[in-house]
Fold this protein.
Amino acid sequence: MHTIGRKREQGVMLLEALIGILIFSLGILSMVAMQGLAIGYTADAKYRSDASFLANEIISTMWMDSANMANYAYPGGTATPLAAWVTRVTTILPQADAAITVDTATGAVDVTLRWTPPNSAETRSYRTLSVVSGP
């Protein structure tokens, strides 16, 4: 009778080891998935900060050239710094598009930047409103 009990217990340790390896593997796979999400969120945050910087850059340029503010409306603007700014926007942000509306009566400026991150179908946007007044 003593040998029958031992035969029933054979392989239990192997089964416990396999279950332990399975749980460990699931934990490692979950950590790898979280790392991938963290990288994606970091890239998204970088694009948002770049968009913020670019919008503030064109608004500060408009502050320095407030006499020609109407020429900064985009698309269609003829201000000299505008073309270089649009080039930077399309270079820094992936699949980017920009729009600037200017109300010369009130000095209100609306800058909207849109971009589509790599490996994403969803378009992101950043919009800032400011009032630019002359000296």
Observations:
- The chain has one domain: 2-131.
- Residues 2-131 form one domain.
- The mean pLDDT is 89.
